[in-house]
Design brief:
4-stranded mixed sheet, alpha+beta, 6 strands, single chain, two-stranded antiparallel ribbon, Lambda Exonuclease, Chain A, 12 helices
Length: 334
């Protein structure tokens, strides 16, 4: 079966998911930080730095992960060489590669960048292969979300890991499987041709049709959920359509009803110049004009510049919480 363990979390929510060969900048950063993580753990020069220029925030994030991994290992040996971390998984043609193994603790760790997401199915596959290799009946997976400074620990029995994977494989292998719009649509190679997304787009476009009753949609929770799902897909397509229209208009083609509008760029004074005059202007006035610094950015600068003092957690202020909608992948089909 030509199936990659890293695709399992996506296939768990949409059995028709196909990896996009153009992984994008986020994936490139993830690979670069993974290489830096291994280099830090092994105490060797980072051989991938020529392909991606890491920021101070990247380095601080990886250093956090290294420190957390040592803490999780508690003095036990940690393996991070790719050759030592490569594993075979029953039923998979392609092997997986963990970022770190802690054999004495029957555990492995994986570095993750970006937002905290679900990786349970991928970790279950790794756990299954590692339990086979180590003749173990239980296994622990630690997810190190370095950008969020968060650790998620998952524990599996052999049967649990096997059942988790088999459920995804069964859905993936089903000849009658149907696509399901989800958070991974933007990463899928079929994002612009997916029948489910096109159907949602078509339903959203009925808003422009005569007789559309928007009040009825707002009054019905089921229809409201379907309408919001359709709008989310339509917005994704709109961005692609705008990019295409701009390119064609700039090349001299005509897109009826649309034209290019050029706005003058904003005026600004760069930070170097501001710094040159900051004493005359007054530190307080300038800092007030710049506004608040995010806690994440302040933490990154602190960890880079002040290494002999702990970060002052009491300095972090919390703004008012905001509400946002997030799709749950459960929609009524009625």
């Amino acid at each position: 079966m030509s199936l990659r363990p890293s695709n399992l979390p996506k296939l768990a929510v949409c059995a028709c998911y196909v990896s996009n060969p153009d992984a994008g900048s986020a994936a490139a950063r993830g690979s670069a930080l993974d290489a830096l993580f291994r280099a830090r753990m092994q105490g060797v020069p980072d051989q991938a730095e020529m392909f991606y220029e890491r920021t101070a925030g990247d380095i601080a994030a990886v250093d956090w992960a290294v420190n957390m991994l040592h803490a999780l290992a508690g003095g036990s040996p940690v393996l991070t060489r790719e050759a030592d971390c490569r594993l075979s998984i029953p039923g998979f043609e392609n092997p997986g590669t963990a970022d770190a193994l802690i054999p004495d603790k029957l555990a492995h760790a994986d570095l993750k960048t970006g937002q905290v997401r679900n990786y349970r199915e991928q970790m279950a596959a790794y756990a299954l292969g590692l339990m086979d290799a180590h003749f173990a009946s239980e296994w622990t997976a630690h997810l190190l979300f370095c950008d969020q400074r968060e650790i998620v620990t998952l524990r599996f029995t052999y049967d649990e890991a096997k059942a988790t994977i088999e459920k995804v494989i069964a859905a993936y292998s089903n000849p009658k499987k149907q696509p399901s719009p989800c958070d991974y649509c933007g990463w899928c190679a079929k994002s612009e041709t997916c029948s489910a997304r096109l159907a949602l787009t078509d339903s959203a476009l009925t808003v422009a049709a005569p007789g559309f009753d928007f009040a009825a949609v707002l009054a019905d929770n089921a229809r409201l959920g379907q309408f919001l799902a359709a709008c989310a897909v339509l917005d994704d397509f709109r961005e692609k359509a705008e990019e295409t229209a701009k390119e064609r208009l700039q090349s001299g083609a005509e897109v009826p009803g649309w034209r290019i509008s050029t706005r003058r760029g904003p005026e600004f004074v760069d930070n170097v110049t501001v710094g040159h005059h900051i004493q005359a202007l007054g530190f307080g006035v300038v800092l007030a004009a710049y506004g608040n610094l995010s806690a994440k950015k302040f933490r990154e600068i602190w960890e880079e510049k002040i290494k002999d003092k702990p970060f002052p957690e009491e300095a972090v202020k919390h703004g008012k919480a905001s509400l946002s909608l997030r799709q749950t992948h459960k929609t009524n089909k009625e």
